């Protein structure tokens, strides 16, 4: 009888144990974020996540509050989304720089080039060429900004999930 009760007490103690922190280490190795259960470099960033109780995970405890962002998978996905947002923001910055350079180049139109474009003056040729360049880059920037907006929505949804 004692042999049967001892393992049962151990099982109950393990299954009713309160939620503990999960330690994840974030390291940047050759510019790539790496996550590990053990320190992966000297400059490893320690990230503490709350581990949900087993009863909460399977829905056996309906009264317990959910903890947003508690999932390691959600955290990693949010980090991926943040990297993607930064990449898109860099793309937008590059497009704006390219737009400024192209607009500057458009201002160097000669009378001969203006005549070939069918413009009445150099100013008309510059305005026409600048408008075309701005329309092209504004469309590119708008498309990337929409992607950033979608990524922000995905990040928000993941942040609100347990």
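Sequence proposed for the structure above (162 residues):
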């Amino acid at each position: 009888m004692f042999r049967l009760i001892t393992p049962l007490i151990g099982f109950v103690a393990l299954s009713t144990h309160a939620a503990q922190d999960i330690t994840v280490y974030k390291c940047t190795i050759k510019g790539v974020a790496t996550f590990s259960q053990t320190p992966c470099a000297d400059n490893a960033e320690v990230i503490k996540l709350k581990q949900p109780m087993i009863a909460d995970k399977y829905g056996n405890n309906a009264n317990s509050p959910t903890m947003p962002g508690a999932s390691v998978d959600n955290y990693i996905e949010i980090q991926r989304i943040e990297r993607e947002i930064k990449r898109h923001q860099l793309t937008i910055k590059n497009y704006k720089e390219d737009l400024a350079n192209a607009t500057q180049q458009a201002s160097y139109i000669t009378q001969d080039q203006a005549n070939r474009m069918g413009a009445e003056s150099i100013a008309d040729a510059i305005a026409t060429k600048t408008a075309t360049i701005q329309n092209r880059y504004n469309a590119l920037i708008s498309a990337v900004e929409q992607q950033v907006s979608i990524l922000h929505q995905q990040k928000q949804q993941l942040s609100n999930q347990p």
